[in-house]
Structures are given as structure tokens and as C-alpha cells.
Automatic annotation (TrEMBL):
PANTHER family: PROTEIN CBG26694, PROTEIN NYNRIN-LIKE
GO biological process: DNA integration
Location of the Integrase catalytic domain: 44-203
Highest taxon listed in the record's lineage: Eukaryota
Pfam families recorded: Integrase_H2C2, rve
GO cellular component, one term: nucleus
Protein name according to UniProt: Putative Integrase, catalytic core, Ribonuclease H-like, LTR Retrotransposon protein
GO molecular function: nucleic acid binding
Lineage, opening ranks: Eukaryota, Fungi, Fungi incertae sedis, Microsporidia, Pleistophoridae
InterPro entries named among the record's database cross-references: Integrase_cat-core, Integrase_H2C2, Retrovirus_Pol_polyprotein, RNaseH-like_sf, RNaseH_sf
Length: 230
């Protein structure tokens, strides 16, 4: 919160007020966890889309819409991530998720990494990825640390989801897009900015911005940040 606000706003006592506000947020206290200060991890990819990791979370409490699982994915270089609520942990759901969500951002992705779940071993999915020039890699069940990036992301997105939907078991699937948007627009220590900024080369805007400044100012702000980065 502090990182995103400081990019666009400033007022006397800002940082103290933000810390006090967050420290009193009961939802944040229940869903959050203490994060230790660690050194930056070396990136495992040298370009966007070089390595994308995919996984599934669940089963979760079944919602009125029948959703019980979340398919997640993260790009190792930019840390940009995706998540989709689904009814079944199936190969069809995985293929739709990849083609409709992930590959619309990285159509020239090089490698996809997953565990050995049956939903990832569909001959159809592997054939489609192969035709796109994408190599599918499977992590070793004896070395689960090879999926460490996606496991950490899954933990993060579940905590954000709990905050967004306030622990509601029957509406969590309607909040997945809000949780993933919050993650992608939040500061990430591994890349030194938010994944959104690294991917799009511009500062993200939030719904609150529209209520505080005019549309003309927001347009000018985007133009200004692009010019600064160029």
C-alpha cells in the first residue's frame, strides 16, 4: 500500500498514517503473515515469457457457481501472474486458461513448468503447446523446490483472496480477479517494482485514483510516466 500510494500522492505524516491504518486492519492481521527481509533471489529467466510456471489450488469450498479450484500461473522474469476459478481440475480447464489468459500476454512463451498432475499431462494440451513452439517441463516429485516460485505465489494469492472477500466461502471465486490485480500491482522485492510496472512500463492506476483526480489528469499522468521511463 505504501509503495503504490507514494508513487502518486504525498501528505504530512503519510507513512505513519499508512502504517497505523494497516496495523489496525483486522482482515489484514488475520489473513497476513510476517514477511522476513531476505536478499533478492536470482531470476530464473532472462526474458519475459522464457519460463512460465503453472499450478492448481484446491479443492476449496464449492461456491454457488460450482467453482472448487483455482488455476494459477506466474512468469519467472516479470513475476506477472494469472489466476482463474474453475469447477474442475481438468486438462480442458488448463488449456483454456493458458490460451485465453496466459498466452494472450506472452504468445511467444518458451517454456512452461508444472508438477506431474494429470491435468497437465493431456496429450491435447502438450500437442497444442508444441505447435506453438512451447516446451513443457515437469518438475521432479523428489525435488518439489523446483516449483518454489509458484508455491510462494499460491500462498500470497490465497492470503490476498482472504483479505479481498473477507473469508466468505461462497463468494471467493468472484474475488479472484481482484486478488490477482492487487498482486500484480503491488511492489515485488525480486524485481524492485510491481509486476505490472515491469511488464507495461507504466505506473498502475487504481479505482481510487478516478475519484481523486480528473480523467484528463490521469491521461496526462500516464503520458508523463512513459516519457520519464523513455
Amino acid at each position: 500500500m505504501q509503495y503504490n500510494l507514494s508513487k502518486k500522492y504525498e501528505w504530512p505524516g503519510m507513512y505513519t498514517q499508512i502504517r497505523n491504518f494497516v496495523s489496525r486492519c483486522q482482515t489484514c492481521l488475520q489473513a497476513g503473515r510476517a514477511v522476513a527481509n531476505t536478499n533478492f533471489h536470482m531470476l530464473t529467466a532472462s526474458t519475459p515469457g522464457e519460463l512460465i510456471e503453472i499450478d492448481t489450488v484446491g479443492p476449496l469450498p464449492c461456491t454457488p457457481r460450482g467453482n472448487k479450484f483455482i488455476i494459477t500461473a506466474i512468469d519467472h522474469f516479470t513475476k506477472i501472474a494469472w489466476a482463474r476459478a474453475v469447477t474442475h481440475k481438468s486438462a480442458d480447464c488448463v488449456l483454456r486458461f493458458l490460451t485465453e489468459d496466459v498466452l494472450t500476454i506472452f504468445p511467444d512463451a518458451k517454456n512452461i513448468l508444472s508438477d506431474n498432475g494429470l491435468e497437465f499431462k493431456s496429450a491435447t494440451t502438450l500437442k497444442v503447446m508444441n505447435e506453438k513452439g512451447i516446451h513443457w517441463k515437469f518438475g521432479s516429485p523428489y525435488h518439489p523446490e523446483t516449483q518454489g516460485v509458484i508455491e510462494r505465489f499460491n500462498d500470497t494469492i490465497m492470503r490476498k483472496l482472504k483479505k479481498v472477500c473477507n473469508f466468505s466461502h461462497d463468494t471467493w471465486d468472484t474475488a479472484v480477479h481482484l486478488a490477482i490485480d492487487a498482486y500484480n500491482k503491488s511492489f515485488h522485492r525480486a524485481v524492485g517494482c510491481s509486476p505490472f510496472e515491469l511488464l507495461h512500463k507504466e505506473t498502475p492506476l487504481f479505482s481510487v485514483d478516478a475519484g481523486l483526480v480528473s480523467k484528463k489528469h490521469l491521461k496526462n499522468f500516464r503520458t508523463y510516466t512513459r516519457n520519464q521511463e523513455e
